[in-house]
Amino acid sequence: xxxxxxCAPDNQGADMRRFWLKMVAATAIAFPAAAANPANPAxxxxxxxxMGCVSCHNRDMTGHLVEExxxxxxxWSTNLSRRLPGWRDADIARxxxxxxxxxxxxxxxxxxxxxxxINDAEMxxxxxxxxxxxPTGVDHPPAVFGPRARAAIASGKAKPPAxxxxxxxxxxxxxxxxxxxxxxxxxLICGDCHGADLKGYEGEGAPANLLVAxxxxxxxxxxxxxxxxxxxxxxxGMTEYSxxxxxxxxxxxxxxxxxxxxxxxxxxxxxxx
Length: 273
Known about the structure:
globular, 3-stranded antiparallel β-sheet, mainly alpha
């Protein structure tokens, strides 16, 4: 008959327990638990530039008058230094990605179709930066809609960004294998000016269809983004945006955007004639 497993005497059992406790402790020291990636507020500040937060809300996030047309809209950007301490991190993420405040009301002046593309790591860093800004300044009045804006809203022609979000996301260029990050960055950084489809707008001085980027070499494209200078040395219409915002883009981000835009052009998309 197979012998039964024997239990060690009490003193030997205690020795064994001490032995295994030491082994567990040694293992914990040798293999410490992986810490969650901490937020990087310095990168968050950089994102606040490249995404345009600083352009609309100032470096100290106090906000300023961004639109003054009594017929259409008079609007101040929010003093985020005073508003955000009362918001949860999830509230900030929801506002950027969907255009909704914590109470469910709409944010009318914000490029939600671009901010929707911020990833979780960027959101964490940006939130850490926004939390680091001390409250200062004053709260600004809510937006005032003029008669033309009120008529457009009543007719359904004008909506808050959240009202167009599903349509805007559907207009985004189709994904390209191997260029997912470049596409995401182009939509996040360039989409607020060049549109949810990156095709720009018609009219003199309007943001161009970004297919034009396929004609640039990488060094020329980097110079265009960072200081607004075209390949021939002339100033472009984006000079102000480049010097206020895009100069903070990293080499890797510029390269990914450029590679994506060239690949998007190469798959047969044509510029309008």
